[in-house]
Amino acid sequence: MPTKPAERARPHYFPQLAAERLDIALCRASAAVARAADAHAAEEGLGVGQHLVLRMLDAVGPCSQQTLSEELRIDRSVMVSVCDELERAGHVRRERNPHDRRSYAVTITDLGRGRLAEAQASVPAFLDDTFQALTPAERDRLAALLGKLLGV
Q1: Cα 113 from chain centroid?
Q2: What CATH number is given to the structural domain containing 72?
Q3: 37: which DSSP letter?
Q4: Could you give the C-alpha distances from 69 to 7, 45, 61, 112, in angstroms and in order?
Q5: Considering the domain boundaries, does residue 86 fall inside one?
Q6: How many Å apart are CA 5 and CA 52, to the nearest integer?
Q7: Angle between helices 48-60 and 22-44 (to 10 degrees)
């Protein structure tokens, strides 16, 4: 008996496409990880960009929004809103940059450090869940390869 079009098995073309076009595979994987990170951030109540800004400020100290934007590879217009939200929440403060009075230095507050510590506590479980298909050695290799692609 002939099968109706609706009964045919769906073609599984993407695995072939991903094998042939590494750029497409990487874009799709990146989008999937970004969706997972956004969902995790929503659960935590601290956006991905906010988390990254707090983490960098905690690690390197006060810096300009421009430096944050360049280092974290976040668009400058987005960085303004990220810093605005963090400042409203009391997690950062903006002060005149002592080295360049025309700009402001963004500084993490004690409240921001506490919020960062809370957010950081859930990261290992999130990463384990998101990258569960990879062994620890494969995750290390992926990190090295992505760093190479990003020039870091």
Answers
A1: 18
A2: 1.10.10.10
A3: H
A4: 51, 21, 15, 18
A5: yes
A6: 48
A7: 80
Which among 149, 129, 140 has a CA at the least distance from the CA of 33?
A: 129
* CB neighbour list of residue 78: distance below 8 Å, 6 or more residues apart: 49
The Cβ of residue 57 has, within 10 Å, a number of other Cβ atoms equal to 24
Burial class of residue 109, CB neighbours in 10 A (0-12, 13-18, 19+): middle
In angstroms, the CA 80 to CA 44 distance is 21
Inside any domain, residue 136: no
* pTM for the structure as a whole: 0.80
C-alpha span between 1 and 7 (Å, rounded): 12
At 31-49, the pLDDT tens digits run: 999 999 999 988 888 999 9
Number of domains in the chain: 1
Q: Is residue 89 part of a domain?
A: yes
Q: How many CB atoms lie within 10 A of CB 61?
A: 10
Q: Residue 74 falls within a domain, yes or no?
A: yes
CA distance 60 to 104: 16
Domain coverage including residue 78: 47-115
Q: For all residues of the chain together, what is the average pLDDT? A: 90
Counting every residue written for the chain, the total comes to 152
Q: How confident is the model at residue 8 (pLDDT cuts 50, 70, 90)?
A: confident
